[in-house]
Structure formats: structure tokens, C-alpha cells
Design brief:
By secondary structure, the chain is α+β, with helices and mostly antiparallel strands. The protein has helices at 2-23, 42-56, 74-77, 120-123, 150-154, 158-164, 199-211, 243-249; strands at 68-69, 90-97, 103-104, 117-118, 138-143.
């Protein structure tokens, strides 16, 4: 009887040890949120630190902020729980549905991104922000998106996304989806409607829309609600940030 009782006890003990070992297995260290990935080379780490410094940098008016903008620093919005995260600010956008059912993002009227602040030079002319488009426009506010992991999404080959598309749920897993394409035929990955193809384009667009900083991609300032800028309100020559610097944030 002693042997028969010990057998099941040993089996239970063995299973318990295996289960405990599996549950307490140490996973690879992924670092803290907002920190560089472990295992970077010295060159990669230096590039990360340079990009983080630029992300935290407060840009002055003379360096390119404005004349209309939301914030003068990337991490002013993307700060929770670390630089690159979300924040308390809200992004304001406007659209208008056209008679044929299509959507006009009102880019020519500033609806693509309504900016809430103006530089002193522009404010002295009575322009303190973009105004809300008034004619049949739909206004919406959005939370600031997290940026963590976007670099990994940018590295996924386009063909891999096409291969994963299953618009008719042919594999029966209850999930259907199709690849969205930008007007120039590239796969859309970034933005609220996945209408921006690359992290490079997404970063340059954010610098332009949120901070009023021009780059080689968006090299002309956008005035209030799409109107031309008054003379003398934008002291920094265009483009205001070089590609090498902008790419550090990407």
C-alpha cells in the first residue's frame, strides 16, 4: 500500500514541478516602456538617444514652430507613460460628406488638423488659431496615439500584408480584412485611417501639422484654415528641419 500511495504522489509532485517551472520561466528582458531595445549596438544606441533628445526638444519660433501649431515639442503630447506614449491633449479634425457619399477631409480649409495655438506675431493680427469650418462640417476630437512599436510595423514587407489579407474570411477564423492603399498605390499603415504609407511620411506630416515645422516633404507653411500666411509672421526659412534630423525621430 505504501508503494501504491507513493506512485500517484510522485506523479503529482512531478507535474507540479513542471507546471511551476513553466509558469515561472524567465522571459527575455524587453526593457522599460520608452527605453531602447536591449542589445543595440553603440551606433544604434547613439542614434536612439539623438532621436529622443530631438523628440524632447522645445522648438522656438525662430527655429520653425508655428505660426499655427498645437505644441512646440513632440513629447508635449506624447508623454504618458513615457515619451512616445499618449497624452491628455486632444486632436481636432473636421470633414464634410459630399453629395456623392465621399468624404472631403477639408485640407484646403485646415480641417485635416485644426491647430489651437498661434505665435505672437500672428496673434497680433487677430489670428489665434484655426477656426472651425462652418458649412456642413463634422467636427471630431481624438486622443493622442501611442507611438511605441511603429518602427516594427514599418518593417513588415508589403507582400506579407497582401498575403495576410482575407476580405471574405475564406479561412473561417471570423476575421476578414483587406489591404488599404494610398492614392499612389502603396500599402497604408499609419494614421487614424491607415492612409499614410511609411513612418518617414507619418513623421514629416506630424511635424508639419502639429508643430508647424516644414521639411523637404512639406516645405510650405499652411496659413489659417488653408489661407496664405500674412507677410512677416514666419521668420524661419523653409525647410525648417533637415531630413537627417527629421529621420532621427522616425
Amino acid at each position: 500500500m505504501t508503494g501504491s500511495a507513493a506512485g500517484p504522489a510522485l506523479v503529482v509532485a512531478a507535474v507540479t514541478v513542471v507546471a511551476t517551472t513553466a509558469c515561472t520561466r524567465t522571459l527575455p528582458d524587453a526593457g522599460q516602456v520608452g527605453d531602447p531595445l536591449p542589445g543595440l549596438s553603440d551606433e544604434e544606441l547613439a542614434r536612439f538617444e539623438a532621436g529622443r533628445a530631438l523628440f524632447d526638444r522645445v522648438f522656438s519660433v525662430d527655429e520653425g514652430t508655428g505660426p499655427l501649431f498645437n505644441e512646440n515639442q513632440c513629447s508635449a503630447c506624447h508623454t504618458v507613460p513615457a515619451p512616445g506614449g499618449t497624452g491628455e491633449q486632444l486632436v481636432i479634425k473636421a470633414t464634410r460628406r459630399l453629395p456623392d457619399g465621399s468624404c472631403d477631409i477639408l485640407a484646403s480649409e485646415g480641417g485635416e488638423n485644426l491647430r489651437r495655438q498661434a505665435t505672437p506675431a500672428l496673434a497680433r493680427l487677430g489670428i489665434e488659431r484655426d477656426t472651425l469650418p462652418s458649412a456642413n462640417a463634422d467636427i471630431a476630437t481624438f486622443a493622442v496615439p501611442f507611438l511605441f512599436g511603429l518602427g516594427a510595423a514599418d518593417l513588415i514587407p508589403e507582400q506579407a500584408l497582401h498575403d495576410a489579407a482575407d476580405p471574405d474570411d475564406l479561412n473561417g477564423d471570423g476575421i476578414s480584412g483587406r489591404v488599404g492603399l494610398t492614392p499612389d498605390g502603396r500599402v497604408g499603415r499609419f494614421g487614424r485611417k491607415a492612409d499614410v504609407a511609411s513612418l518617414h511620411d507619418f513623421t514629416h506630416l506630424a511635424l508639419f501639422n502639429e508643430m508647424g515645422i516644414t521639411t523637404s516633404v512639406h516645405s510650405r507653411e499652411r496659413g489659417p484654415n488653408g489661407a496664405p500666411l500674412p507677410d512677416g509672421v514666419d521668420p524661419a526659412p523653409d525647410p525648417q528641419l533637415g531630413d537627417d534630423s527629421a529621420d532621427l525621430i522616425t
